[in-house]
Design brief:
seven-stranded parallel β-sheet, Alpha/beta knot
């Protein structure tokens, strides 16, 4: 392990200003890196085959995280350790989850590769809130969908907050960016997918009714937090679906809507698997 004594140490430049969203959006993708925070998240990244560049942790976590330290070092990553005030000065916040790792970004696969074996795909159109995006990935992993596609204007699924909210499921759910948008939906159609837009329109089919006869291969499109789906996305979809509301509420948060829809449209095999494990 290499000791860090100063917030200006150039060896830990990857970790500077982690609370500055604008800075990190510029530095992380351009530098080919992303940050994973906490033992569980870092472990999931390593389990997914992602390569560590370095690990940063405080003195008191060296022994509890000894196995993780050894694993990162064995994969060629540098390990930096320092006192908690120094780490806080570097990152901009109290590092209370044990450790942060700087990871090499894997190359994004083609859309056709991601959806080739999938039956349920969630598409995020221009979702810019990292918390919502991370929560969507977690719901997809838990509720039976197979993959996520994000449009060019959507937030980065590998941004630190999105990774943390997803509990590292961004590493286990196949995903990539779909471009151009919405013309890229042609790839989904060529693979036999029905494209369903989740939106509040007068002709939208209630989700529970649609779920009774849902197609074998389905791509569900979710819209941005403020304006919902674009007119172009709605026009490109094969069907529009809505979640029926009561109590004078017109819609759900996009992450909550994704969870409801993923559960309602879960593949039949998931029911059998759930029953056998209960």
């Amino acid at each position: 392990m290499e000791r860090i004594e100063s917030v200006e140490d150039p060896r830990v430049l990857d970790y500077v200003g982690l609370t500055d969203v604008v800075l990190r959006r510029r530095i992380e993708p351009a530098g080919g890196l992303y940050l994973a925070e906490s033992e569980k998240v870092i472990t999931r990244a390593l389990d997914a085959g992602h390569r560590p560049r370095s690990l940063l942790l405080s003195d008191r976590w060296c022994e509890p995280l000894g196995a993780l330290v050894d694993r990162v070092a064995s994969l060629g990553g540098q390990v930096f350790v320092g006192e908690e005030p120094v780490l806080e000065g570097i990152t901009g916040f109290h590092v209370h989850r044990g450790a942060i790792a700087s990871m090499h970004r894997p190359a994004l696969p083609e859309v056709s590769t991601v959806v080739a074996a999938a039956h349920r795909v969630v598409i995020c159109e221009d979702i810019v809130d990292h918390t919502n995006l991370g929560a969507i990935f977690r719901s997809v992993a838990a509720l039976g969908a197979d993959a996520v596609l994000v449009t060019p204007q959507s937030a980065d699924p590998l941004y630190r907050r999105a990774v943390r909210v997803s509990m590292g499921t961004v590493f286990q759910v196949p995903w990539t960016r779909i471009t151009p948008w919405p013309q890229g939906l042609d790839v989904l159609h060529s693979h036999g997918f029905t494209v369903a837009a989740l939106a509040l329109t007068p002709t939208a089919v209630p989700l529970d009714r649609f779920a009774r006869t849902a197609p074998d291969r389905l791509a569900l499109v979710l819209g941005t937090e403020g304006d919902g789906l674009s007119a172009a996305a709605l026009a490109a979809a094969d069907v529009t679906v809505r979640i029926p509301m009561t109590g004078g509420v017109d819609s759900l948060n996009v992450a909550a809507a994704a969870a409801v829809a993923a559960w309602a449209l879960r593949p039949h095999e998931m029911d059998a698997e759930t029953q056998s494990s209960s």
